[in-house]
Input
Amino acid sequence: MNRSAMTLRHTSLRLTALAAFLLPLAIAGCGNPPPAEKPPLSGAAIGGPFALTDKAGRTVRWSQFAGRYRIVYFGYTFCPDACPTDVATMMRGFDRFEKAEPKLAAQVQPLFITIDPARDNQQVVGEFAAAFSPKLLGLTGTPVEIDAAAKAFVVYYAKGKQTSGGYLMDHSRIAYLMGRQGEPIAMLPVDQGPEAVSAELAKWVK
Output
């Protein structure tokens, strides 16, 4: 076999090998897209039914929001720093998302649930929520109702130290994003600013 024929043969073999390597990749890329990313809290035992009270004294049940996404934050209105900061960031992030995706944002209900029902009555919790956004629904209830809701959402809270302005409350700082069926999706990054919150909403609210 002459040198020219050997060169052509070797070239042909290399092309055949390359094609055999690339063909599965092409098939995988075109016909089988990579699986969708699973929500971080997928399958977690977070969330559940509750019956609480809004600023008008109406009973609000978790089941009323079926078919809608929900943002859930537990805190208290006398909180000197953490709660106002977190809720402000949460709602500013929601506002950014609403401007970008108004139709999707209309399918999201933000909720603020107090863990201090002794001081946060209907009027107080309603005024607190309204100070951040008319879209934010403030909820309170009896100590038993609040405790049941907090346990359903795996929220820690306890009466803290006494100060000159009154007692403080120790509590976990989590803003949950819940899905249309009440399933947990993700924790919104309120510690990273409104842009991060908006981006996380855009990632999961579809």
Q: What stands out?
A: The domain at 51-204 is CATH 3.40.30.10 (Glutaredoxin). The chain has two domains: 1-34, 51-204. Confidence is low (pLDDT under 50) at residues 1-29. The beta strands are 51-53, 59-61, 69-75, 108-114, 137-139, 157-163, 166-171, 175-178, 184-187.
